[in-house]
């Protein structure tokens, strides 16, 4: 379960290198370090979730299936429910094997009985006809603060999307979202930004 603020910045490779050289004193590699993240996003037949998100409401939500590597049936993946209310992000997720997640999505099995799985069950029952609509993948570098593990910075490159071959078991490919030479930086914090980061 995550509750935090998430701030996104589009920066150049030069800015990225400068920032990393500055914060190595304060941050260390995340447990996943460098990884190629794959996400399957789900939506209704009328694309209700993405249409609602584009309207930038006070509250919005989405569901996705994520892996931190090319998946096989026994690879750990995460089924994630992500909500945003007044700028604060709330994320719940359950860890499953890829084959278990696909079986659940196809209606052939159930999640373990806990609060998070009940929220996911309700989401799926509320938004009728959810199905995979898009894969978004990217190469990520992730770091967290030495003094506050809730403060994280990630850098995403080679951000790609596709609307076919909606699988976590495929190679990362698709149409580019970012222009060459640019990086998507995301700053994530449960509290205030550290003073050293604000000064930078």
Q: Which features does this protein show?
A:
single chain; 200 residues; 9 strands; globular
Topology:
Elements: E1 2-12, H1 13-23, E2 27-43, H2 48-54, E3 59-67, E4 76-85, E5 88-97, H3 98-105, H4 115-126, E6 131-145, E7 152-162, E8 175-176, E9 182-189, H5 195-199
Antiparallel strand pairs: 1-5, 1-9, 2-3, 2-6, 3-4, 4-5, 6-7, 7-8, 7-9
Could you characterize the architecture of this molecule?
By secondary structure, the chain is α+β, with helices and mostly antiparallel strands. It has five helices and nine strands; from the N terminus they run βαβαβββααββββα. The protein has helices at 13-23, 48-54, 98-105, 115-126, 195-199, and strands at 2-12, 27-43, 59-67, 76-85, 88-97, 131-145, 152-162, 175-176, 182-189. An eight-stranded antiparallel beta barrel has the order 1-5-4-3-2-6-7-9, surrounded by four helices.
Short description:
It contains five helices and nine strands.
- Neighbour order of strands in the largest sheet: 1-5-4-3-2-6-7-9
- Range of helix content: 10-25%
| Gap from first CA to last CA | 29 Å
The whole-angstrom Rg is 17 Å
The percentage of residues in β strands lies in over 45%
Number of helices: 5
Judged by helices, strands and strand pairing, the structural class is alpha+beta
**Mean of pLDDT:** 92
Listing every helix as H and every strand as E from the N terminus to the C terminus, the arrangement reads EHEHEEEHHEEEEH
Strand runs, count:
9
The backbone outline, from C-alpha atoms, is globular
Largest sheet: 8 strands, antiparallel, barrel
Low-confidence stretches: none
């Amino acid at each position: 379960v995550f509750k935090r603020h998430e701030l996104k910045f589009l920066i150049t490779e030069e800015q990225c290198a400068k920032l990393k050289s500055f914060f190595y004193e304060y941050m260390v590699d995340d447990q996943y370090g460098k990884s190629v993240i794959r996400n399957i996003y789900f939506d209704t037949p009328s694309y209700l979730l993405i249409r609602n998100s584009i309207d930038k409401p006070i509250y919005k939500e989405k569901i996705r299936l994520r892996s931190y590597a090319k998946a096989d049936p026994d690879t750990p993946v995460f089924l994630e429910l992500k909500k945003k209310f007044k700028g604060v992000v709330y994320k719940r997720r359950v860890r499953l094997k890829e084959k278990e997640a696909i079986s659940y999505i196809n209606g052939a099995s159930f999640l373990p009985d806990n609060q998070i799985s009940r929220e996911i069950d309700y989401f799926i029952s509320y938004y009728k006809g959810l199905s995979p609509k898009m894969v978004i993948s990217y190469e990520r570098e992730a770091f967290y603060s030495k003094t506050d593990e809730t403060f994280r910075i990630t850098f995403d490159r080679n951000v790609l999307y596709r609307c076919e071959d909606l699988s976590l078991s495929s190679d990362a490919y698709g149409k580019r979202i970012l222009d060459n030479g640019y990086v998507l930086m995301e700053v994530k914090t449960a509290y205030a930004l550290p003073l050293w980061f604000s000064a930078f």
